[in-house]
Design goal:
- The complex is a heterodimer.
- Chain A is mainly alpha-helical.
- Chain A is built from 14 helices and no strands.
- In chain A, helix 5 runs antiparallel to helix 6 and helix 7 crosses helix 8.
- Chain A is flat, with a radius of gyration of 24 Å.
- Chain B is mainly α.
- Chain B contains 10 helices and no strands.
- In chain B, helix 8 packs parallel to helix 9.
- The two termini of chain B are 21 Å apart.
- The chains are: A mainly alpha, B mainly alpha.
- Chains A and B meet through helix 1, helix 6, helix 7, helix 11 and helix 12 of A and helix 3, helix 4, helix 8, helix 9 and helix 10 of B.
Chain lengths: 306, 271
């Protein structure tokens, strides 16, 4: 078990190094001089030179890279070009908002998806199945940057039930969470159906029915319970999609999270902040995937033996 | 290969895609309005018999702009999927066929690219390269090829063990010939499914980047830019947001229906 854990953790190290390298390269992909791009065309050469020095761009590339890695490991991602505050501090301030939105969206997705997937699997091939899966496919196809404004028109403008933007109360969370969670719900519903169908075909379900276990109990207590293992993995793997979706949802609903900070920073050409946000989201994603892998190893011993 | 799309969904998907392609190609002849003609006195007017989708903030016909936006979306989709699938097929084919160190190196590069969730890397790339249609295509292709490469690699790993491949090698066929004639064709059906679903993904991603102000720049019409522009007028002219988004959702749904139908046609067990 310990060997499996160590193996998985060690495999994540080169990936994290690759992620950090790619994030470091971003500023060097800026056409022309990044300092010039940040300050604009009318900037004085003295200001440009000062910014180049403060960003470390006057150093040899290898030295910049080593410094970037050393600082990143200690949590120092430089200072924001726009506010002068440490990037890490600004990002940490925004983490609770993004985490709250991501969790709420995943909850919305699970609440919608599991009943929908179960109904579709149990009544496979019927109109119920086709309707549920068409709904699921429609959910994947509706962009959240369109759904968000539509929800705002109906529930905030027309009905006046929910606030249109900002963060504070539970009411503020409803529209962003639905807007972000619907696409995930659609994906999960399809996965729930597929996973449950596989389990329903297993002999142990038939054996349970033969023993006199009711159909509902055979589905919920036996088949659904076992289909939860791959489903939990998929839920965790979809966390990345939620984080990316949050960039758009936070922009629409003026939600003060990391996604909104990223888009604002792009607008101001605040490259250290852009790098910081991208690095944090990618590292979070890799970590969640790693934890999922480790959990899967705990839940299913066959994985450890592979 | 002749395929029968048995499900109604797949046929509906094909019809939707065909109508949108036709509408995008014939837009200038279909409508009496140009996408750039301004009717300022009637700006923000809702749908009428003359202007079915209404007018935007500059008095331009929204239907004309939506149809012209379809050209941008389809073009981005075709280029991104085309480039990604060709690169993915080449890289995945080489990786799977040769294995060993080459496979390991390519695998690590793919792992790093897959470590960035969804569109995040595309957002980052466009943010530094600058907002433009070319950079959007570039960014989406950079992240897009990995999925195809993984798929092709898996298929090649399986196919290279087939007896007819061993027979071809025994008869003296070269590596390129074995790969092109015997191994890679086995990856075409799943690749076709992924490419169809990839069209939906690329169209959505382009619209999302344009919505964030990172993609197609005005005055070129794009569905994402139109939805973003409409947000300012959400209260007084919601049609500015509703119609481009509706078109986008329908087209993406069409490609998803078609992709699902193709998957069922190639592999009915999953149905």
């Amino acid at each position: 078990m310990l060997r499996y854990f160590l193996h998985r953790v060690l495999l994540a190290v080169p990936v994290l190094l690759g992620v950090a390298t790619l994030v470091f390269s971003l500023i060097h992909l800026v056409p022309g001089d990044p300092a010039q791009a940040m300050l604009g065309d009318g900037a004085a050469p003295k200001d440009i030179a000062e910014l180049r020095t403060s960003l470390g761009l006057d150093q040899p590339l290898l030295s910049q890279y080593v410094t970037f890695l050393r600082h990143a490991i200690t949590g120092d991602l430089g200072k924001s070009f726009r506010t002068g505050q440490p990037v890490t501090t600004m990002i940490i301030e925004r983490i609770p908002a993004t985490a709250e939105l991501a969790m709420a969206a995943m909850l919305v997705a699970i609440v919608i998806a599991i009943p929908l997937g179960v109904v579709a699997a149990v009544w496979r091939g019927t109109a119920i199945d086709y309707s549920a899966m068409t709904f699921a496919l429609a959910g994947v196809s509706i962009p959240n940057f369109w759904l968000g404004p539509l929800l705002a028109i109906v529930f905030s403008v027309e009905l006046g039930w929910l606030p249109v933007s900002g963060r504070g109360t539970l009411a503020h969370l409803v529209l962003p969470a639905i807007s972000l969670g619907l696409a995930l719900a659609a994906i999960l519903a399809r996965m729930t159906r597929a996973s449950l169908l596989e389990e329903l075909g297993e002999l142990y379900v038939r054996a349970a029915r033969a023993r006199g276990v009711s159909s509902a109990s055979a589905i919920t207590a036996h088949a659904l319970r076992n289909s939860m293992v791959p489903l939990l993995t998929i839920i965790a793997l979809q966390f990345g999609a939620v984080l990316t979706g949050a960039v758009i949802t936070e922009t629409i609903f003026a939600w003060p999270g990391i996604g909104r900070l990223l888009i604002q920073s792009i607008g101001f050409r605040d490259y250290p902040m852009v790098q910081g946000c991208i690095l944090l989201i990618a590292v979070t994603y890799v970590t969640v995937n790693l934890i999922t892998d480790l959990m899967y190893g705990v839940l299913d011993p066959r994985i450890r033996l592979e | 290969m002749i395929l029968r799309l048995r499900s109604g969904q797949a046929s509906l998907g094909l019809i939707i895609v065909a109508i949108v392609v036709l509408g995008a190609l014939t837009a200038p002849w279909l409508l009496p309005w140009d996408a750039t003609t301004q009717d300022l006195p009637n700006r923000l007017h809702g749908p009428t018999l003359q202007h079915w989708f209404g007018l935007d903030e500059l008095g331009r016909d929204i239907l004309a702009r939506v149809l012209l936006g379809a050209r941008v979306s389809l073009m981005v989709g075709i280029i991104v999927v085309g480039v990604s699938s060709i690169v993915g097929m080449a890289v995945g084919g080489v990786s799977g066929y040769y294995g060993g160190r080459i496979d390991q190196i390519i695998g690590r590069v793919m792992d790093v690219l897959m470590a960035f969730p969804g569109m995040l890397l595309a957002i980052a790339l466009v943010a530094v390269l600058g907002p433009s249609l070319v950079n959007v295509v570039l960014a989406l292709a950079v992240i897009g090829w990995v999925g195809y490469a993984r798929l092709v690699r898996g298929q090649v790993l399986r196919a290279r063990e087939f007896e007819y491949v061993t027979a071809a090698k025994a008869l003296g066929a070269g590596t390129v010939r074995v790969l092109m004639r015997h191994v890679l064709p086995t990856a075409v059906p799943p690749l076709l499914v992924q490419a169809t679903l990839g069209m939906a993904g690329a169209i959505l991603s382009e619209a999302a980047l344009s919505f964030l102000g990172l993609g197609v720049q005005p005055p070129t019409p794009s569905w994402g830019t139109m939805i973003n522009g409409g947000r300012v007028h959400l209260l007084d002219a919601p049609h500015l947001t509703i119609f481009p988004g509706l078109f986008l959702a329908i087209v993406v749904l069409g490609f998803n229906f078609l992709g699902d139908g193709l998957r069922d046609a190639f592999d009915p067990r999953g149905k």
